[in-house]
Structures are given as C-alpha cells and as structure tokens.
Amino acid sequence: MRAALWAELLKVRRSRLPGVTVLAFTVAGLFGGLVMFILQDPARARSLGLLGTKAELAGGVADWPAYLGLLAQIVAVGGVGVFGLVVVWLFGREFSQDTAKDLLALPVGRTTIVGAKFAVAALWCLALTLYLSVLGLPVGAAIGLPGWSPAVAAAGLAEILASAAMTVLLVTPFALAASAGRGYLAGVAAMITAVFLAQVVAFLGYGGYFPWSVPALFTGLAGPDRDPPGVAGYVLVALTGAAGVAGTAAWWRGADQDR
Questions:
Q1: Domain membership of residue 171 as a residue range
Q2: Is 63 part of a structural domain of the chain?
Q3: Residues 53-64: tens digit of each pLDDT
Q4: Has residue 259 been placed in a domain?
Q5: pLDDT score of 225
Q6: What is the residue-wise DSSP string for 188-238?
Q7: Do the domain assignments include residue 214?
Q8: 235 inside domain
Q9: How far apart are CA 111 and CA 152, in angstroms?
Q10: Percentages (nearest 5) of helix, strand, coil residues in the chain
Q11: How many domains does the chain have?
Q12: 89: closest CA among 159, 34, 20?
C-alpha cells in the first residue's frame, strides 16, 4: 500500500488537475463572498454594477451562519462535479494513457491499487474542503459579516465537512464507470447523469430517497419548504459509497485488462 500510495501521489503532484480544482474552489469561495456582499446592501450592489437595476433578491441575510451555510451548499452541489472529476481522473487516466497494463504488471495487488486511488481521492477532496473553509474566513472578514463566534464557526465547519463526506461517498460509483468504460468519457457521463437526476428527483419531492439529492437537502439548498433527509437518505448515501468502492475493486480484480 505504501508503494501504491507513493505512485498515486506522484501522479497527482505532476498533474495540472490539483491546480484546476483549487482554482475552482477559489472561485466558488469568492462567489459566496460576492453573494453575501450583494445581500448586505442591494442598492450598493446596483450602483457598483453587480446587480441589474430590475433584479430582486429573494430573501436571505448576510451574516456568518448564512455564509458558512452557503459554503456547505457549494460543496454539496459543486463538489459532485469537482470531486467527481478527481475520481474520474484517478481511475480513467490509466486507460486513456494506456498505462493500466503496466500498472497491473507490478507486484502490487489490484485491490491495493484501487484502495490507494480511493485514499488519495479522499485526501484530495478533504484538502479542497479545508481550503474552501479557510478561504472563507478572510473573505467573510473583509466584507464585514456580523454574527461571528467560535460556536458559529464550529457549527459551520461541521456542516461543510459533513456535506463533503457525503459528496465523497457519492462520487465513488464514478470510479467504477470510468474503469468499466476504460476512460474518462463514461465516468463524466455518469457524473452528469447523477447531477441531472438529483435535480429532477428533488424537484418531484423524493430527494430524500435519492442519494445524490441528499447533500443538497442536508444543507437546505432546496429551500425551507423541503423537508431535510431522514435516516433512510443518509443510509442510502453510505450504501452508495460502499457499493462504489466494492464494485470498483471487484471490477479491477476480475476484468480482463487486455490493453
């Protein structure tokens, strides 16, 4: 496992994708700050050209609890795309770059290789989540958000991390899609399909029973009129994550790697 982890981390270090994912979360964090800045004073935002003269904002308050909640929502929705891209890249690159057969020729078990890839993916996504949380502190302070306290910060960070943990579990099936499809395309297609269905199912009112809708409902993104997911929703998220890991490991153990 140590050798497999070293190899996967070396691939990550030499790739441009970590920089791209950091940039994506940087833009997301700054966008959250911009939303809070506009909510503070819509008239000021209009005078600065940040809000159309005829545009109206539907409620919302500009304070630390709202901003940290917005960051959690960004992780719940945007994380599916960014975290999904991480997982698809880690597994799909071996087939797109024709290195799968070389990787499997090494004296390292296939399950160990899969475990190392998932471990690196989890660490990568955790680092991005912590980066977004840390970035939010100076952004919120710069725009003068009220309502700061250690308890608010702890509750906000817990919500962000919980949202990230659920999202990481939900992107594991994309690794199976990228592996079985032998490249990026199948993984990206599965990711797009999951995001689309999450929106549709949540709109129909059954989001609590569709795993990819649960993080958004957990963070309140669907609105106050939508009930939060119940225990069944969280159990489905855990089962989806376990199935993604187990299914990917089983595929790598049994698939015929002929190229």
A1: 2-254
A2: yes
A3: 444 454 567 889
A4: no
A5: 56
A6: HHHHHHHHHHHHHHHHHT-GGGSGGGHHHHHTTTT-TTSPPP-HHHHHHHH
A7: yes
A8: yes
A9: 41
A10: 75, 0, 25
A11: 1
A12: 20
What confidence tier does 51 reach under pLDDT thresholds 50, 70, 90? Answer: low
Contact (Cβ atoms closer than 8 angstroms) between residue 184 and residue 96: yes
pLDDT tens-digit readout, 5-36: 898 899 899 899 999 999 999 999 999 888 88
Residue 179 has pLDDT above 70, yes or no: yes
Does residue 150 contact residue 137 with C-beta atoms inside 8 Å? no
Long-range contacts of 109-114 (CB under 8 A, 24+ apart): 110/249, 110/252, 110/253, 111/249, 111/252, 111/253, 112/1, 112/4, 113/4, 113/252, 114/245, 114/248, 114/249, 114/252
What interhelical angle do 64-96 and 150-180 show, nearest 10?
20
> What percent of the chain has pLDDT above 90?
50
pLDDT of 54 reads 42
> Given phi > 0 = left and psi -120 to 50 = alpha, else beta, which region is 17?
alpha
Give every CB contact of residue 211 below 8 A, 6+ residues apart in sequence.
Answer: 170, 233, 236, 237, 239, 240
